[in-house]
Specification:
There is one protein chain. By secondary structure, the chain is an alpha/beta fold. Helices cover about 40% and strands about 10% of the residues. Strand 5, helix 8 and strand 6 form a beta-alpha-beta unit. Helix 1 packs across helix 7, helix 1 packs across helix 8 and helix 4 crosses helix 11. The chain is globular, with a radius of gyration of 19 Å.
């Protein structure tokens, strides 16, 4: 199914659905029930984390540039402190590993779906002199909850990745999270949400890898600790991640972020004890969607590398040196009240 979705996205296919028509009625009824319980608290507007991190490493080398795109997960909705957002955590971690300052620009918008990525990419690439060295995209949850056709969702994502790669930026995509982990969601919606999320995540992986990007499966927000500690890893609205949840996700993305920039040496040897392998890209995508924290990167077509990188503890994120872009702040304020 993931391969069919990706093929439909690439070659102009239309409405390849993720669930059967007979399930739609039950699905929508359960959605309405879940909506009454999800979001019982209020998710704070995400703080703007734009600015320079790692100023202690300032020297003759230029700062690296990191771009964040996507939805509320990329924006950091659900936390109140700048240092708790995924962008600040990744920028601080990247600066510590590279021993260079990192300029973060976050154009992610709460409530965004994949069709908003075109606008976000245009914001990042508006100034050719400030093209990001690497971009992290986290997108997909709102595509599922708003029933965007999967082919359209993947097409928008792959177009965004292609534009960024053409501009010279490396790209790491955190694929659609597993919506079956949302605590107030009951069966059969929980099963359907998990199936839909994983199918979209696998299709995203196929599309991204074919455009030269890498993916990290966010799955159940990365690891058994999420299922064991849902109260700690969900924010006050029972939907967005808490500070601990974002830190867990960032710890899984950071190793891939560093690897794609050549900051950590790549080994040609696969670690069988960590279930690393070379597989056809569709099979690698499907396996990654089932196991959170799995990286997929392209090898010689049609093969892909399946990696389980060791998570690294993140340094404490500090307040950035302000370097705010007014159009980013305005765009985020406009959309902060418009969704999840």
């Amino acid at each position: 199914m993931a391969r069919r979705i990706a093929a439909g996205a690439a070659y102009g296919g239309g409405g390849i659905g993720l669930i059967g028509a007979a399930a739609v009625g039950v699905f929508l009824a359960e959605v309405q029930l879940a909506k009454r319980q999800v979001g019982g608290g209020t998710a704070p507007v995400p703080p703007s984390a734009d600015g320079r991190y790692g100023v202690a490493f300032a020297g003759p080398s230029d700062a690296m540039r990191l771009g964040m795109l996507g939805d509320s997960t990329a924006a950091g909705q659900g936390v109140r402190r700048i240092g708790q957002t995924p962008g600040a955590l990744l920028a601080s971690g990247l600066a510590a590993v590279a021993e260079r300052p990192v300029d973060l620009r976050n154009v992610a918008l709460p409530g965004a779906r994949s069709d908003d990525l075109d606008r976000q990419v245009s914001l990042l690439l508006a100034d050719p002199a400030r093209t990001p060295d690497v971009c992290v995209i986290m997108i997909g949850a709102n595509d599922v909850t708003h029933r965007m056709p999967a082919t359209q969702s993947v097409r928008c994502l792959t177009t965004a990745v292609r534009r960024l790669r053409t501009a010279g930026a490396e790209v790491v995509v955190g694929t659609c999270p597993d919506l079956g982990t949302i605590e107030p969601v009951y069966q059969p919606l929980r099963w359907l949400a998990r199936r839909v999320s994983r199918q979209l995540a696998a299709a995203q992986t196929i599309g991204v890898v074919e455009q030269g990007g890498r993916t990290v499966s966010l799955g159940d927000l990365l690891g058994p600790e999420f299922a064991a500690n849902p109260r700690e890893l969900f924010g006050p609205d029972n939907y967005h991640p808490s500070a601990e949840g974002y830190a867990t996700a960032a710890m899984a993305v950071l190793p891939t972020l560093c690897a794609v920039l050549g900051l950590w040496p790549e080994s040609d040897r696969l670690d069988g004890t960590r279930r690393e392998d070379i597989l056809p890209v569709a099979k690698a995508a499907s396996q990654a969607a089932r196991e959170a924290g799995t990286e997929v990167t392209g090898a010689r077509a049609p093969w892909a590398l399946l990696k389980h990188r060791r998570r690294r503890r993140l340094p404490a994120a500090t307040e950035p040196t302000p370097h705010v872009h007014p159009d980013t702040a305005h765009g985020r304020a406009q959309g902060a009240s418009g969704g999840s």
